[in-house]
Amino acid sequence: MAFYDSIFDSLGLKEWCGADAKGGPMTMAELLTRSKGTQAEETSAWNVPFPSLDELHASCNAIPRTRDMTSGVEQFFLDIKSSLQFVLDPLTQPLSWLLDGSIWMFVSIPWWLLIALTLVAVQFITRSKSATLLVAFTWLFMAFIDHYTYAVQTMAIIFVCTGLSVLLGVPVGIAMSKNDRLQKAVIPVLDMLQTLPSFVYLIPLIFLFSVTESKLYGIAIILYAIVPVIRLTDLGIRLVDQDIIEAANAFGMSARQKLLSVELPLALPNIMAGVNQTIMMSLAMVVIASLVSAPGLGVLVLRGINNLELGVGLVSGFCIVILAILLDRVSKATLARVDVSQQN
Amino acid sequence: MTANVKVSIKNLYKIFGSDPKSALVHAKNGIEKAELLEQHGHVLGLKDINIDIKDGEITVIMGLSGSGKSTLIRHFNRLIEPTDGQILIDGVDVMTLSDNDLRKLRQQGMSMVFQKFALLPHKTVLENAGTALRVRGESSENADQEGRKWLDRVGLAGFEDHYPHQLSGGMQQRVGIARALTSNSAVMLMDEAFSALDPLIRTDMQDLLLELQKELHKTIIFISHDLDEALKLADHLVILKDGEVVQQGEPQHILLNPSDPYIEDFVSDINRARVLRVRSVMRPLSDSTAAHAGTVDYNDTLEDVISHSDGDTSKVYLVKNGSEAVGTICMKDLVRALVPRAPSEDGVRGQVNAA
């Protein structure tokens, strides 16, 4: 006799509930009770069980158990898997090519050429000697301790994912800033993407794609890192001085002219702050994505955890930190340059 | 003056709120601003405005903050949509224009100068000055050439490659004026263009505007909360209060014949000697051979005459318009004109004192 039997009896639902006999596997609690050989204790007001799915099922077979629910979710995913795959697989295939291609390219360029190229690019973009020096020091240090290839792989992934995040995120941000209803609809999605523990959204992706494919971690990183660039593009455009927008209107600018020659340039410092955040978040995610076969420094961290190779894990962790500092400094130096040319 | 009417506003209403159309009925029935807000939750922005703006004149719309003057000026180029009424520019109702035609009007027919300058901070002074031409799609050489010409004209030659934040407020507003002039539009809207500037620079800018106007004869609609400025610039003065026109006409006329205690209060504070002109106080010529102490010009201010007379109130001057004698002015009349009618106790000031 389960606790809620009487309730179903009094409601006259006994027939709907079906036979008393329980089908299917037992719950852990049932198994424990049985193995202990003890009878269910007398229930008093003090230990009334919460009417959960499992508890109600004990009284009424027609009510599903919690494990039925979770397996239902699983079944749902399995059912839609093939059709989702049919749509998403070809759509996301270029991402795999892009990631594999850029990793291959970055790794196969000789080390002295790649280092020289990055230094020239950093100097050109930031015009900051200290940022360039920092990059030089970091590259040489990593190469010296034989972490160069891993670091280059990580950088290649960040490069591709950040690029795509900006490419997708900025238009979404612009659309949000122009349409209040869209903004209201998108913000909860962004909130969810940002708060969902990063491991959790690897799960549906593992279902959909094979773990050996690069697009799996590519999608995970982009979903995680795209949020700030969308948010700050939206915010940046909304924060553009209304007086200046009014002047643009008064001179008869079309929506396109306004966007390209007023709103985007004035929102650029905010958008760049978003790009900075996006870079940092893709670095955070690329480490976790080593769980799903993303190459790079994260693999070493994972090896350190799995094999209890303390030194390997700590050194590669340290490399990730200096990589983060490098990316942050370089993108902030770029931001500062953008800012200086348009102070109010 | 017999200038043509360039811009005309007829029966213009603007009501802010969730359902302006239904509130409009009440407004047309003559409900007061406060009542409309209390009973129907709508703000009466502008009420039954009728203004004719003549070609080539400076029309100053003046009122205190909250009187609706900035709302009104934004109706001329439809930055704000009216609730009801007509805005005619060269006889064409702006309300009937398509989006495209409206943009054309804003690009070519009207330019605007803003209180807070509203220059593009990421563009150089020269690029800012050429904004209007660039928006129209003209070549950048052409825009730069025109921009340079007008920057030179407003006294900013040599600053072309600076950014707006590197200039002082007065210089930034000169860029704003150059930007409006470069568009070469017939109508210029100036929304409290000089209010954010220091008094000395403001005077400079007013002189600059008058000097430019002498050559260009644009139709200028100028918004101001400063009566001295309004009287200095205006050919036609419109005084707004709580969204209604209280009085409009020639500034001298308003000054000498305020129609309303509100305006009496307003005009009682200003330096009348500097604003009033001989032509407003003189008597028509009756006997050109009568004895006079000298001649003064038709358009001289009373201040000029006082300094001329050395303070002697017994003198009589002959008034000339060009070389033709048109009247006489005796110092007694002049001094009398300097004393305003006593501000009434139930005017704005009386209320403030009581409160």
Layout of secondary structure:
The complex is a heterodimer of chains A (344) and B (355).
Chain A: H1 5-10, H2 14-17, H3 28-36, H4 53-59, H5 66-108, H6 111-126, H7 129-144, H8 148-178, H9 180-195, H10 202-208, H11 214-238, H12 242-250, H13 255-288, H14 297-306, H15 310-340
Chain B: E1 5-16, H1 20-28, H2 33-40, E2 43-54, E3 58-62, H3 69-76, E4 84-89, E5 92-93, H4 99-109, E6 110-113, H5 125-129, H6 131-136, H7 140-153, H8 169-182, E7 187-191, H9 199-216, E8 219-224, H10 227-233, E9 236-241, E10 244-249, H11 251-256, H12 261-267, H13 272-275, H14 278-281, E11 283-284, E12 295-297, H15 302-309, E13 316-321, E14 324-330, H16 331-338, H17 348-354
Parallel strand pairs in B: 3-8, 3-9, 6-7, 7-8, 12-13
Antiparallel strand pairs in B: 1-2, 1-4, 4-5, 9-10, 11-14, 13-14
Helix pairs in contact in B: 7-8
> Roughly how much helix do the residues of chain B carry, as a percent range?
40-55%
Number of domain modules of chain B: 2
Number of separate structural domains of chain A: 2
The appropriate CATH architecture of the largest domain in chain B is 3-Layer(aba) Sandwich
Biggest beta sheet attributes of chain A: none
Oligomer: heterodimer
Largest interface: A-B, 20 and 27 residues
CATH architecture descriptor text of the largest domain in chain A:
Orthogonal Bundle
Quick synopsis:
The complex is a heterodimer of chains A (344) and B (355). Chain A has 344 residues and is mainly α.
Note the main attributes of this structure.
heterodimer; A: 344 residues; mainly alpha; MetI-like fold; 2 domains; 15 helices; B: 355 residues; alpha/beta; Rossmann fold; CBS domain Like; 6-stranded mixed beta sheet; 4-stranded antiparallel beta sheet; 17 helices; 14 strands; globular; disordered C terminus
Could you characterize what this model shows?
The complex is a heterodimer of chains A (344) and B (355). Chain A is mostly helical and 344 residues long. Chain A has two domains: 5-64, no CATH class; 74-340, MetI-like fold (Orthogonal Bundle). Chain A is 77% helix and 0% strand. In chain A, helix 13 runs antiparallel to helix 15. The longest helix of chain A is centred in the N-terminal third of the chain and has 43 residues, at 66-108. The model of chain A has no long low-confidence stretch (mean pLDDT 87). With 355 residues, chain B is an alpha/beta fold. Chain B folds into two domains: 5-249, P-loop containing nucleotide triphosphate hydrolases (Rossmann fold), CATH 3.40.50.300; 272-338, CBS domain Like (Alpha-Beta Complex), CATH 3.90.1280. Chain B has helices at residues 20-28, 33-40, 69-76, 99-109, 125-129, 131-136, 140-153, 169-182, 199-216, 227-233, 251-256, 261-267, 272-275, 278-281, 302-309, 331-338, 348-354; strands spanning 5-16, 43-54, 58-62, 84-89, 92-93, 110-113, 187-191, 219-224, 236-241, 244-249, 283-284, 295-297, 316-321, 324-330. In chain B, the strands form three sheets. In chain B, strands 6-7-8-3-9-10 form a six-stranded mixed beta sheet, with helices on both faces. A four-stranded antiparallel beta sheet of chain B has the order 2-1-4-5, with helices on both faces. In chain B, helix 15 links the parallel strand 12 and strand 13. In chain B, helix 7 (140-153) packs across helix 8. The longest helix of chain B is centred in the middle third of the chain and has 18 residues, at 199-216. Chain B starts with a strand and ends with a helix. Residues 350-355 of chain B have low confidence and may be disordered. The A-B interface holds A 241, 243-244, 246-247, 249-254, 257, 261-262, 265-266, 341-344 and B 77, 79, 102-108, 110-112, 114, 116, 118-122, 131-132, 135-136, 163, 165, 183, 189.
